[in-house]
Write a structure and sequence with these properties.
alpha/beta, Rossmann fold, 3 domains, single chain, 434 Repressor (Amino-terminal Domain), 354 residues
Length: 354
């Protein structure tokens, strides 16, 4: 009818419409006092729902002005059997291990996997992910750091009602996925270095947008405190989880009036860059400087000397994060957080102070 309003009608404010667009199936379930599965059954006109319950759900839908989005096909069982792994991480070794684990889980349950590289600092990130979800008809997404902690992205996925799982999300962003006690692991690594007689222990930080960077820095500081060592800000330098950034950071550390005798890098790629920089200066690892990393990715075995590092089971983390995502896709609320264990891998890149 040409879009004309009835006389005296007042258009809904823009913020009201935006709020209505963000209503999720969880909100309908909570308002009606039923499960999300029951809401799904009502929305899809499925049997075995009492008339009284149906009326409550329909009333909640009307009150909240809930409108199922295209992604709601998941709830109706009309699945594409396609999930996407979203990533923006400069560490190819880490990503490859995660990807292999995700593929293991997808193949086991006959799902296809799409790899979606994204720029974490893209101001249009949330909208691009929404377009990807709708256009590719994704059943769900798996988030890797630092995307796991992008608040706007998490809110958009929630608004869309799209199941998602995260690898190593910050504590306040944990929903479904896997985590490792990175703080405790780094404390243990500091204890190892202190036991070898190291007093000036440096730290190469990870990318500031990455939740793990904060945990590993906090673990470094607490580990020093437990060992009775003083924190020296001059021994903490910025990195970006890349080989190149580890190399550059180490050169800065070696130029200090009192250089460190040990370096803990926040991942193996940066640790490998540190080893190279030390040799370029005519020094030896570990005779002059001990080096250790985090992750135990393949590069830890490929460099010489082999790298002392924290082993988090990266491939298994990818597999379990994907497995929890597929549970969540089958039935909302069934996925959960899996706590993974770590181990210290003590190799030849660390030794006693000479």
């Amino acid at each position: 009818m040409g879009g004309r309003r009835a006389p005296g009608a007042t258009p809904a404010p823009e913020n009201s419409r935006a709020k209505a667009a963000r209503v999720r199936i969880e909100d309908v379930a909570e308002t009606a006092g039923v499960s999300m599965k029951t809401v799904s059954r009502v929305l899809n006109n499925e049997p075995n729902v009492s008339e009284r319950t149906r009326q409550r759900v329909e009333a909640a839908v009307e009150t909240l002005r809930y409108r199922p989005l295209p992604s709601a096909r998941v709830l109706a069982g009309r699945r594409s059997y396609l999930v996407a792994m979203l990533f923006d991480n400069p560490s190819p070794n880490y990503l490859m291990e995660i990807e292999m684990g995700v593929l293991d889980a997808c193949r086991a349950q006959h799902y296809n996997l799409m790899l979606a590289p994204l720029a974490y600092d893209d101001p249009d990130l949330a909208r691009k992910v929404e377009s990807l979800v709708v256009q590719s008809q994704l059943d769900g997404v798996l988030l890797t750091p630092p995307l796991t902690d992008d608040v706007a992205l998490l809110e958009r996925l929630g608004d869309l009602g799209v199941p998602y799982s995260s690898v190593s999300a910050k504590e306040q962003n944990r929903h479904v996925g896997v985590v490792v006690d990175e703080y405790g692991a780094v404390c243990a690594m500091m204890e190892h270095l202190a036991s070898l007689g190291h007093v000036r222990i440096a730290h190469i930080k990870g990318h500031p947008a990455h939740g793990a960077s904060g945990w590993r820095l906090a673990g470094y500081r607490e580990g020093l405190r437990r060992a009775g060592l003083r924190y020296d800000a001059a021994l903490v330098v910025d990195g970006e989880f890349s080989y190149e950034s580890g190399h550059a950071a180490t050169l800065r550390l070696l130029d200090l009036p009192q250089p460190p005798t040990a370096i803990f890098a926040a991942n193996d790629d940066m640790a490998a860059g540190a080893v190279c920089a030390i040799f370029e200066r005519g020094l030896s690892v570990p005779r002059d400087v001990s080096v250790c990393g985090f992750d135990d990715t393949p590069i830890a075995h490929h460099i010489h000397p082999a790298l002392t590092t924290v082993r988090q089971p990266t491939r298994e983390m990818g597999r379990l994060a994907a497995a929890e995502l597929l549970k969540e896709i089958r039935e909302l609320g069934s996925g959960g957080i899996v706590d993974m264990s770590y181990t210290l891998q003590l190799r030849r890149s660390t030794g006693a102070v000479g």
